[in-house]
Every structure is written in structure tokens, then in C-alpha cells.
Amino acid sequence: LSSGINAEWPLRPGETEEAENGVKEESKPNENEADLKAEKIEKADSDDKMKVENGSDDIISEDKKKPKTKTKTVQNPLEVTISKKGFTAKELQEAVERENAMISTDKLIKDRLMAKNAVEEYVYEMRDKLYSKLENFISESDKDVYLAELSKTENWLYDEGENCQKQVYIDKLAELRKVGDRIMTRYTENEGRQGALNLLGTSLVHVRKVLDLIRNKDEKYDHLSEEDIKTLAEKDAEFQGVFNDFCNKATSQKLDEDPLITVAQINLKKKKVPTATLR
Prior knowledge:
Elements: H1 17-20, H2 29-65, H3 89-130, H4 140-157, H5 166-215, H6 226-252, H7 263-271
Helix pairs in contact: 3-4, 3-5, 4-5, 5-6, 5-7
């Protein structure tokens, strides 16, 4: 029966006023899940810690079970016997002779190779010069003959002359030089001839100037006697004649012929020009 009176009932745990009116409040699922995860992690850490502690205890117990090893050092005497056998006088002499023989053989091989190389270098050098600075100092016919000889020698070096004795190479080089040196002499004489003639001519000009001063009664030459002056004049005429002869020969000199006068001859005449009485 309804008496028309509202009865108030006490709220149960977890209910709000809304529940009182017939609506229940649902619990928050996120907060409950976070609490559960935290509990699981804490329990796992505790289990791991216990395992580590138990493991270290096991290792320590295992080490305690191993017996300690003692080391004992024992010294055993070692006997060493050194034996040395020296050379006898005969063996030593034979060793010295063998060494000297090897040194002598090496020197012979070296000298032979050097002599061979000298021939080869001369062939290459002369062939090159005959087409350059020595070209005008040998006739065309002589050049052809000499070039053929150089080529023949080159071929010989790589054939029959491959392993000849030292003296064979020396003789071969001397044979080539008989022609080559003559050509080279023509070149060097032509290069130095004019300079030597100029020096000789300068010396003769000086003598002639002194003679002119003497004729003009220069006091500087009062110490000269009449005989000295006469001798000086004769020498001047003699050397002037030689100088003219040298100049004529130099003018008529052909480049591909041996020199008619040499630089040595001209220099020798210059040294003989009288100068002592001119001071």
C-alpha cells in the first residue's frame, strides 16, 4: 500500500546520488588497467632480482668448491758445451786464393764490358755527329764509307763480337778512331784557327809600334843598343812573313781536308815573338 511517504535509503558503496535516482555510475576502466600493469612490472623486477642474487650465490659456491693449485719452481742445471774449430794454415791460404781469384775474375768481366760499351758508344756518337756538326768536315764519298763501317761494327757487337776479350774491343775502337779522329781534328782546328791567328797578329802589331817609337827616339827605349834594334827589326820581318803565310793557308783551307796549319803551330810562333827587349 502506498502511504504517499518517500522513504530515504542509505547509499551503497560506489553509488552516487545519480544511482539513487536509478542510474548506476560506471567505473573508469583506464585507471584500473594502469594499476594492474604497474603491479605486474613490480613483480617481474622482484623475480629478476631474486634470480640474480641466487645466481651469484651459486657462482661463489662453485669457486669455493675448486681446490687451490700450488706452483713449485724447480731449477735444473743446463750444461752448454761450446766447441770451435779453427782453419789450418793450408785451409786459410786456399780460402784467400779463392777469394783473390773471384776478385780477379770480376775485374776482368767488368773491364771487358767497359771496353765493349766504349765501342758501342763511339759508333752512336760518331753517327750522330756526321749528320750534325761534322757534316762539312768529310767528303760525301768518305762519309758513306765511314757510315757503312760504323753500321758493320754495330752489327758485329751483337753477333760475333758479343763475348770477345777486352783487347779485341780496344783494337776495334782504335780502328774506328783512325778515321773519326781525323774528322774531329778538322772541326776543332777550324774552330780555333782564327782566334790563334788574331792573337799572333796582335803581338806583331805591338812589336811594330815599339819599332816606330824607337825610330822617333822615345826615351823609354834608350837602353836598347843598335844591335838590339837591328835584331828586333829582323825578327819583326820574319814573323810578319810567317803570319802572312799562315793567313794564306787558312784562307785556302778546305773544311773536308786535313789542316794546312794547326793551332799548336800558330801558338808556338806567338810564344817566340820578341817581348823581353821591349820592356
